[in-house]
Amino acid sequence: MNTLTGPRKAGLLTLLLAPSFVLILAFVLGPMLGSLWISFHDWNLLKPMTWTGLDNYREVLTSADTWKAFRNTLYYVVGYLPLVYVGGLLIALGLNRAMRGRNLLRGVYFLPVVTSWVVVALVWKWILNPNSGALNAVLGWFGIDGPGWWTDPTWAMPSVILASAWKDLGFVMVILLAGLQAIPESVYEAAKVDGVTAWQRFRHVTFPLLAPSSLFVVMISLINGFQVFDQVFVMTGGGPAGATTTVVSAVYDNSFRYGKIGYASALSWVLFVVILIVSVAQSRVQRKVVDAQ
Q1: Helix axes 261-292, 30-38, angle to 10 degrees
Q2: How far is it, in rounded angstroms, from Cα 85 to Cα 129?
Q3: Contact, 232 vs 238, CB < 8 A?
Q4: Fewer CB within 10 Å of terminal CB in the chain, N or C?
Q5: Distance from C-alpha of 104 to C-alpha of 100, rounded to nearest angstrom
Q6: Is the distance from CB of 264 to CB of 35 less than 8 angstroms?
Q7: Whole-number Å distance between alpha carbons of 66 and 77
Q8: DSSP readout, 237-264?
């Protein structure tokens, strides 16, 4: 049987990849380049664009609202990341053991991941309702006066973090569970022969060998954290008093509420650069950790 070589093989590969390339060009690269071009203009979607050069970027980098949005986003990431990782790790460790109904529990914990963010946000908005919410009602049984949650500037971001971590626990669990199952059983048997305790096995065996999966989860969670929007939009709308206005919600507000498309595009590209820097740094750390094993 003859195999394709040279130009014929290249032509066949080009033909097979063309549909995917067209879609990527139309829905990824095209919009990205378009937003980059728009970021150098003043535009409100109605009037013709006006060239402004780097004015939008100067305004983004000097605006107090921009820095507040980045602080809020960083606040979200710092609160969300440890919560979702530690919670997902504990669930993965628990469901990695032999128990009755283990597969059912895995499916139950993963169910929020495939549930619409709008549904999850609305449910948590009801749970955290300061007047008629379920959580404050439970706290009231113990004589605790619950906070205002998403209506209070102090508790609004923790409310969003709590809802986000609950939804994403299943995703982290699945990744870490796969990492746990990839650890050879012989390693644990050797550790038992040496007489190490359960905590020592976790600290010196499980956790180091779980590093690649952990770093992958951290990277994905960081990227998702910097792009948080859906839950903020549904639960708080960026309020109260801008306490939950993140960078992506600021992009949305400037685009569709204030008609500052050029400014919003510049802000989105600044966010892109920040995520790119964080991702590259994370990749280098992950490569060093994996190579060291």
Answers
A1: 130
A2: 26
A3: yes
A4: N
A5: 9
A6: no
A7: 17
A8: TT-STTTT--HHHHHHIIIIIS--HHHH
DSSP-derived secondary structure letter, 206 = I
Integer Cα distance of 254 and 62 in angstroms: 16
Q: Compute CA 258 distance to the chain's CA centroid, rounded to the nearest angstrom.
A: 27
Q: What is the per-residue pLDDT for 247?
A: 96
Contact 161, 82 (CB under 8 A): no
Hey, which residues does 42 pair with through a beta bridge?
50
Local structure of 179: helix, strand or coil: helix
Quick one: three-class SS letters along 112-141? HHHCCHHHHHHHHHHHCCCCCCHHHHHHHH
The token duo for 41 is 């203009």
Contacts 24+ apart (CB under 8 A), 113-119: 113/167, 113/168, 113/170, 113/171, 113/174, 115/167, 117/167, 117/230, 117/231, 117/234, 118/230, 118/234
Whole-number Cα distances in Å, 233 to 148, 171, 188, 253: 18, 22, 46, 10
For the chain, the residue count is 293
d(CA 238, CA 156): 9
- The residues, any chain, with a CB within 8 Å of residue 174's CB and separated by 6 or more, are 106, 110, 113
Which mean pLDDT values do the consecutive 10-residue runs of the chain (293 residues) have? 63 82 88 93 90 94 94 96 95 88 89 93 94 91 91 94 95 94 86 82 88 90 93 93 94 93 95 92 76 62
